[in-house]
Amino acid sequence: MKRTYEQLIQHHFADHTQMALLTGPRQVGKTTTSRSIQSKNNTYYFNWDDIEDRERILQGGQTIAAYIDIDRLRDTLPLIIFDEIHKYSQWKSFIKGFYDRYHTQCRILVTGSARLDVFKKGGDSLMGRYFYYRLHPLSVNELLNRAPSDTDIQKPLKIADTKFLNLLNWGGFPEPYLKQEQRFYNRWTRLRKQQLLREDIRELSNIQELGQLELLATLLQHQAGELTSYSTLAKKTRVSVDTIRRWIVTLESLYYCFSIRPWTKNITRSLLKEPKYYLWDWSQCTDKGARNENFIASHLLKAVHYWTDQGLGEYELYFLRDKDKREVDFLVSKNQKPWFMVEVKSSIKEKLSPTLAVFQKQLLLKHVFQVAMDGDYVDQDIFTLDKPTIVPAKTFLSQLV
Q1: Helix (H) or strand (E) holding 341
Q2: Which of 241, 252, 137, 240 is nearest to 201 (CA)?
Q3: Which residues form the DUF4143 domain (predicted)?
Q4: Percent share of the chain, pLDDT over 70
Q5: Domains of the chain, earliest start first
Q6: Which of 128, 212, 228, 396 has the fewest beta carbons under 10 Å from its own?
Q7: Core vs surface per residue 194-230: b (16+ CB within 10 A) or e
Q8: Does 141 have pLDDT greater than 70?
Q9: What is residue 111's three-state secondary structure?
């Protein structure tokens, strides 16, 4: 399956000399995507989890350069892929040194199943040397096989009902989506969760209470989209609130879950609350309503990440709630200004929520949608609408990424 991100990374190397940092969850397709960017005879792949590759990396950049014969004249510059190198404690120094010495002789792609942007908090030694890209699971728009657009919103395009339902039920990770077989799905999800909560946690953190961490992951799975109570989670797992916060940050950094925070600007009687958490694999939500909401949340997060990574602006995803307990599921901002709002409903027959008009007036929002999961596709650009409207999910999601 050809991913949208292949063309995005290809355009990156055609236009820029900086490294590309490509991150995303385990099994989302980073290795397949990166290896398909250039021809195999001009692409060199080094995986930290491979013993021989690890030895070469530990010997230093000159060993890597000699191994690929970097001084040889070629028709195109070689692409060097460093996969999972974030597990090396000195990876930033290694990458910085290699880039500074050889960036005119090659193109460099760094991939990983943990967030590579976390080092920004302590100062970014790679500043000016990279652009950051976040690889997400499959989405409605990506299944439509459209070329990447230079604009954020695209024209609507119909997706087959079976493809839409399969994406909702099997999730957006390529293997289970393509296989669509229950026994394979059960084994795949169990193994992925074991690798993430056991192997990755052990390698990238000092957390010892793995059983309690697994319990926390299960609790987050069953309350996806709900307001978070750290104290309740702490009581159920028998650790402190501070520990819960640290563990959730770790789970976020390993792409198990993601957070959405409340928008508080320009909201009368805004309620400063903790974030909501959603799963990267929405198929793990057993409740139908929670899965629908997580499905839309994942599509919106993919969109704001993709648009931002592509340089179209600064996009963020929030939810809305005030002290009168009026709430809307999602708000997307563009360059720090509210842009469009989304409320998720299971049925097209549900009445339009009056809360949408309230928040639209307060925030001066341009577009307001109540997205119905079971609605039939309508061939109309919904981003031409300027009042709260019930729209089918198939139409809405086809206009994102």
Answers
A1: strand 337-345
A2: 252
A3: 199-347
A4: 96
A5: 4-134 (3.40.50.300), 140-398 (no CATH)
A6: 128
A7: eebbeebbeeebeeeeeebbbbbbeebbebbbeebee
A8: yes
A9: strand
